[in-house]
Each structure stands twice: as C-alpha cells, then as structure tokens.
Amino acid sequence: MYYYRYENSEVSCCYKYLMFSYNIIFWLAGAAFIAAGFWAWSEKGVLLDLTQVTRLHGFDPVWLVLVVGGITFILGFAGCVGALRENICLLKFFSGVIGLIFFLELTAAVLAVVFQSQVREWINDFFLQNIRSYRDDIDLQNLIDSLQKMNQCCGAKDPNDWDENLYFNCNMTNRSRESCGVPFSCCISDPTDLVINTQCGYDVRKKKDDWANYIHTKGCITALEDWLPRNLYTVAIVFVVISLLQMVGIYLAKTLISDIHKVKFRY
C-alpha cells in the first residue's frame, strides 16, 4: 500500500500554495462570521437561554451569518489542509461541495426566472411572516428597517401590511401606542433632520389621504422589482465574479489531485 507523501514530491508547489492562499482567506472569513454570529446571540441573551431560538417565528439574520460562516469555515479548512497535506479526500470534498454550490446557484437562478409569480408570492408570504415578528428580535427589526429605508418602501405590497403586526394593527381593541401606525423606516425623511424621529409613523394610517406626505406608499416587493432591472448589470457582474472564484477553486483542487495521482502511480 502506498502513501501520498514522498521525500521528493513532484506536486507543483505553485498550485499547492495558490490553493492554500485561496482558502486561508475563506477559512479566516468563516471563523469571523461564526464569531460574529455567536457574539450577536450573546448580546441578545440567546446563549443563556437556547429556547429563544425556537420561540422566534420570523427570520433571525444570525442564522444566515452562522450557516454561511460554517460552510465557509469547513470549505476553507478542507482546502487549506488538503493542499498542505496533499490529501486527496479533502481536496475532492472541497471541489465537490464547491461544484454543488455552483449547481444550486444556477438552478435557483433558472427557477426564479421560470416561476416568477410563485417566487413573488413566496417572497410576499416571507415578508409578512417577518412583519409579524418585527418586535420579537432586534436583528430582524434592524434588517426590515434597513430594507425599507434603502428602498424607500413600506410593507410587502403597501403600508397596510403592517396590520399583520400585533403592535401596529388598526384593531379598535389594540391599545398599543403604535396602533394604526408604521415603523419609522417607512417615513419620508428630511435630510436636514439631525435626529431620527422614531415616532414619525404613529397614527399615520388613520389618515389615508395624506399617506404620501408622510410615508413611502410603495411596497417593498414592487420596489425590488423596480430595482432589479436598473441594476441588472451589477447583479450579473457579481454573479460572474462569484462563479469565477468558484471555478478557480475547483480548477486548483483538480490540478492538485491530478499531480498527487501522478506521484502516487509513479512509485
């Protein structure tokens, strides 16, 4: 039985250390994402009470940070160690997972184009679900506020979607001060204001005829549909860059595997 390490290895040092350099960045980035995710959870007290993870009915952005960080960390580790130790199994794992991710990205893009109406409905339901949980999680709250401010929109389809939230509902029995209002991120901001008025959305939906003077009336799904055609080239460039990075990683891994096989069968 032969092993993959030899005193006079003919594995290309160039590809070997390019592979290592390529992956060390992702390895460190993955570790940083994981650390940031656990820090965010510790700030919210989740680490002291893990049942909070199951009690949140909306989307917790920390989950996305941890999942992306975990996948990036594992792939970076496999790529770094596989390159340095000339380990075929780790290199095959690395190239296989990268290839799978690339295939899933292409599949998601094609399905989004083919099933546009279903995707639109899914995004609408997802947004409404998170509107209901707006006050349950500070990270989710900041995410929705950022989305509404950047796109100058309010709600999924219109400001009345905030009726889905317990605090902003217009029901006569609702005694919340925010009843029949919207979050401050829906408000039309004045560039001269030095301090953000977080109460600007109070009672605003009681005067529907004056909505346009105080808040953005466009839904965020419509705003997203308007944004995409205007930034199609930017989206395409980002997709191409990510795809090229993935292809480079697969190429380096396959080249190293080929070199290691040549050394193995030579002996």
**Spans of at least 5 consecutive residues with low confidence:** 1-8
Structural class: mainly alpha
**Outline:** elongated
Please give the share of residues in helix.
55-70%
Rg value: 25 Å
Would you kindly provide a written description of the structure presented here, covering whatever features stand out?
The chain is mostly helical. The chain is 63% helix and 0% strand. Helix 1 (13-44) packs antiparallel against helix 3 (61-85), helix 1 (13-44) crosses helix 9 (232-266) and helix 3 (61-85) runs antiparallel to helix 4 (88-114). It is elongated and about 80 Å long. The termini are close together. The model is unreliable at 1-8 (pLDDT under 50).
Search tags:
267 residues; mainly alpha; 9 helices; 0% strand
List the helices and strands and how they pair.
Layout: H1 13-44, H2 52-55, H3 61-85, H4 88-114, H5 116-132, H6 138-151, H7 211-214, H8 220-230, H9 232-266
Q: TL;DR of this structure?
A:
This protein has helices at residues 13-44, 52-55, 61-85, 88-114, 116-132, 138-151, 211-214, 220-230, 232-266. With 267 residues, the chain is mainly α.
